[in-house]
Amino acid sequence: MALSLDLNNPKEPIVAQRFVELDSTNTEALRQLRSADNRPAQRSFIISGHQTAGRGQAGNGWHDTPGNNLLSTLVYYPQQLRAADLFAITQVSSLAVVETVKILTGIDALIKWPNDILAALPDRPNKVQQTGNPGGYQSSSVDNESDQIGFAAKRGSQYAKLCGLLIQNSLFGKNVQWTIIGAGLNVNENNFPVELEKSAISLRKLVGHELDLSTCEATYAATLLAKIDQYLTPLNRIGLQRDYLARLHRLHEKSNYLNVATDTVFVGTIRDVDSSGQLVVEHRVGRLQRYGLKEIRFL
Q: Which of 61, 89, 249, 267 is 20 to 30 A (C-alpha) from 279?
């Protein structure tokens, strides 16, 4: 079923396939990409009303109530995007969701590195660059430079996850052959599992009323394609980095973290995200350390 989108002169036609239920939109995209007879067109969206086996980054699971949320995957064939610039796709996708949330609700969402989208809980102002949500992790050891462990718990704003992204790519030589951008945005979800009640939020819970899901889907699709055109065709590395950092959760704020490899809690300050997507954290003044996905945990 085609999805009607209000776009200003899109560079290429848009195709949208809608399903009542899928195991996951990314998995369906992969099936089609591997099919000789059913290869998706450029800028194809795969949309589902429900996912039975939705996935997040690094294998995390996904929950949704049928018909309540935006579950979408875009198939995109980049033109001359180098494998070394893969993280740009993550940045563009994150900014597209942030902009979509702003258009739909007026809320300024934040990007929790690398690509979770957060919003301040309703009793807190939704402003960019507030202190992050502290945790209560108990570690077997504590970094000796961290004599202020726990300070964030005294003044931190509470945030919850609005959207998760799962991006998968295929490389051919030094270039990106194709990328699929999967998004799960909590729109009208009102019944989170007990284990997610404090860590997840929906647009409905934030604004106090249901939103039209078709409008949300069309807004997101238009915004994502516009961001791709703005930043990736051609690659605008400087502007993309600037805009991504402007929405980055905890940038230049002292907060508590866990070094997963050493099981050590420390106080650090996010200073940057490098071109490969690693998080750059300052431990002591001037001592910077880079972390990859699953090497650091936000507390």
A: 61
Q: How many residues does the chain have?
A: 299
Rounded to whole angstroms, how far apart are CA atoms 162 and 212?
Answer: 17
Whole-model pTM?
A: 0.85
Q: What is the spatial distance between Cα 191 and Cα 193, in angstroms, rounded to a whole number?
A: 7
Per-domain residue ranges for the chain? 15-123+158-250, 137-157+252-299
Give 64's pLDDT tier (boundaries 50, 70, 90).
confident
The per-residue DSSP string of the chain comes to -------SS-SS--EEEEES-BS-HHHHHHHHHT-SS-PPPTTEEEEES-BSS-B-GGG-B----TTSSEEEEEEE--SS-BGGGTHHHHHHHHHHHHHHHHHHH----EEETTTEEEEE-TTS---SSPPP-------SEE-TT-TTTTHHHHHPPPEEEEEEEEEEEEEETTEEEEEEEEEEE-SS-----GGGTTTB--HHHHHTS---HHHHHHHHHHHHHHHHHHHBTTB-HHHHHHHHHHTBTTBT-EEEEEETTTTEEEEEEEEEE-TTS-EEEESSTT-EEEE-TTSEEE-
Q: Give the separation between CA 17 and CA 40, rounded to whole angstroms.
A: 10
Note the pLDDT tens digit of each residue in 175-205: 999 999 999 999 999 989 899 888 999 999 9
CA nearest neighbour of 265 among 130, 173, 145? 145
* Residues ≥6 apart with Cβ < 8 Å to 147: none
Topology annotation, domain 137-157+252-299: SH3 type barrels. (2.30.30)
Q: 101: closest CA among 206, 245, 225, 15?
A: 206
